[in-house]
Write a structure and sequence with these properties.
The complex is a heterodimer of chains A (475) and B (264). Chain A is an alpha/beta fold. Chain A has 21 helices and twelve strands. Chain A has helices at residues 8-16, 19-42, 46-62, 64-77, 88-101, 113-117, 120-126, 136-143, 160-171, 183-200, 226-232, 250-264, 319-323, 325-330, 341-352, 369-373, 380-393, 399-412, 415-432, 446-449, 463-469, and strands at residues 81-85, 106-109, 130-133, 203-206, 210-212, 217-222, 236-242, 246-247, 272-276, 290-296, 438-439, 454-455. In chain A, the strands form three sheets. A six-stranded parallel sheet of chain A has the order 1-10-7-4-2-3, with helices on both faces. A four-stranded mixed sheet of chain A has the order 8-5-6-9. In chain A, helix 3 crosses helix 12 and helix 15 packs parallel to helix 17. Chain B has helices at residues 21-26, 28-40, 56-60, 64-77, 89-102, 107-119, 123-130, 150-156, 160-166, 190-193, 195-212, 222-234, 244-248, and strands at 14-17, 44-46, 83-86, 120-122, 139-146, 170-174, 216-219, 240-243. In chain B, the strands form two sheets. Chain B has a four-stranded parallel sheet with strand order 2-1-3-4, with helices on both faces. Chain B is an alpha/beta fold and 264 residues long. The chains are: A alpha/beta (475), B alpha/beta (264). Chains A and B meet through helix 1, helix 14, helix 16, helix 17 and helix 18 of A and helix 1, helix 2, helix 3, helix 4 and helix 8 of B.
Chain lengths: 475, 264
Amino acid sequence: MQSTAHDFKDNVGAALADPNLQDSLAKLKVGFSERRRQAAERLPEFEALRDRARDIKDHALANLDFYLEEFERKVMALGGHVHWAPTAADARQIIGELCRSVGARTVAKSKSMVAEEIALNEHLEALGIAPIETDLGEYIIQLRHEPPSHIIAPAVHLTKDQVADTFLEHHAPLGFTRRLTERNDLVAEARHVLRQKFLDADVGLTGANFLVAETGSSMLVTNEGNADLSNTLPKMHIVLASIEKVIPTLEDAAVLLRVLARSATGQESSAYTTLNTGPKRNDDLDGPSAYHVVLLDNGRSSVLGTKMQDMLRCIRCGACMNHCPVYGAIGGHAYGWVYPGPIGAVLTPQLIGVEEAGDLPNASTFCGRCESVCPVRIPLPRLMRHWREREFERHLTPWTARQGLALWAWFARRPRLYRGMAQIANRMLAMCGRAEGRYRMLPLAGGWTRFRDFPAPPPGGTFHAQWARTGGKRP
Amino acid sequence: MSTPPEVRPAPPRRVALFVTCLVDLFRPAVGFAAVKLLEQAGCTVEVPPLQVCCGQPAYNSGDRASTRAIAAQVIDAFAGFEAVVVPSGSCGGMLVHHYPGLFDDDPGMKARAEDLARRSHELTSFLVDVLGVKTVAARYDGTVTYHDSCSGLRELGVKEQPRRLLASVEGLRLREMQTPEICCGFGGTFCVKYPDISNAMVGEKSADVVATGADTLLAGDLGCLMNMAGKLQREGRHVRVRHVAEVLAGMGDIAAIGEPEAKR
């Protein structure tokens, strides 16, 4: 996916001015967080499970080489194949060749953020292979040629009316000429259109929520069952997953599943949880005859063993974005790449460079709500701060901000001088703002006063000046 | 029948006030209110003269070297006090949570930072959790709503303490917002670096405040308060905005944040 992260501020302007988006976000903010809260409340051991989930992922990451090799051994023993893709380009090439090896014309895709990360659809189209998104949200945005705006609800930025218009435009040539207004009718029509595509697809491509080392299984959760059709009907099934998805055992998967759906949608579990364990066996009634797993690194292994490793615990539930007031104001597209919200602000600079995505970790108030709901307790504010420090070290921070900060820090390290300056500033602000008690405009504070009044201090001087004057007595 | 006496360590008596730069510059009354509350609870309050800022602007801008230098200065300034009390969750969070991590490569300084962290407290949390204060002698005629500032809430667990003390203020009624725990959009330099996003956030907060029908908005952090006051006033709302310490100290009759003195 082509990044627009460097245009963050422009993207924000567009997002704030989009009434449909703002409408959708207003619903998302309340809905997701309320459902998660209720789900967490219903499960007394939820907080303890979060600790266990964190520990499981930490253990897997500390022994990632071991579990990945174990996973590969198991897949091969089942008659499947494992492909190692160091970069996005490698992954695209591997998948393109696999598709061509079976003469594929269409690929039924189940939702995969990693496929977005490697821009797989564009690559397949260039090879003359049609990728068909089968997740409802992904299907809608594919018709509209838009990127996903949320990792588990890719079309959450759209209103029902927009979806109705999109379906009418694209389904009319297939004979569906009535504009639908009911949610269930829209779903039924999409289901109808997609059904034949499942049957026609030559290759099914899915992501994976977890890769289980002890069994060689890939595990996938959906609420639509589309993944099951994607991986059962076509003759070849390709699993595309990044390396940090591997966990040791099915027992571990059970713990992670218990926090995943609750954190994501407030469900106790997703409607479908599917384990794919190798190709069709002789006595199986159905299933793919060829089973391939493509393991993508794309810069992740370089994070191992560093202070940033915690970001790899992410199980892609989306809770951080559902609870982020910044995401809630601007939506996912403004972040400009595959992963939005707090986890995007941490992952994107790692995956495509902090020069490109430098705004993302800065566009946070560090309110900490993301960390407070993360099922694997990723310290997202700390990781965002890490990027700010890298930007500062590399002089990527804007010049004016650096100079202002340097001047302030110089004074802050000279308490007596700072005290004097504060007293002067206090006197001036108090005097000029005395009549109104506040300012509607203030030089050098346009970012503030464009939207807010600025309070003037009351007369009498700074606290320290008053304290010193009265010898430590209250006025 | 008598119950055994509660075994508690003696509360610290000689405490230092960390005034914070915003209180010093924009709202000295918060500092005096804090002093009053602490003295009423039996403490002797000192204000170490060489204190300035906790270093948050540098820390959140990625300038670790300046942050360390400022933190070292704060650690020196507050050496030797039994407790350090801060009328701000975010400055308090800085001392309690973030200072030790700044000195991972310097065991001597790290130990001193951890020592300061153990002694440092947000004001309402110190009054309730450490000193065991249950009531205050104050009166405030009005309906208030309370915004939970993010750092105080999530880094220091400040939630019930201010509410418990407010419940003892005569004449005061508390009416909660729908989302008191959601950020107001201040975020230090965030509010001027990303003013459009900040404005969207504080606009929602303002709507939530207004919907409660409260005539007064309280919180424990001056940055958030200035942000919310500025938005409410720009929108022409008649909500007075005050630091919670002012009301608890019985100083609720002074001009509210952003209001002129003359209109008292």
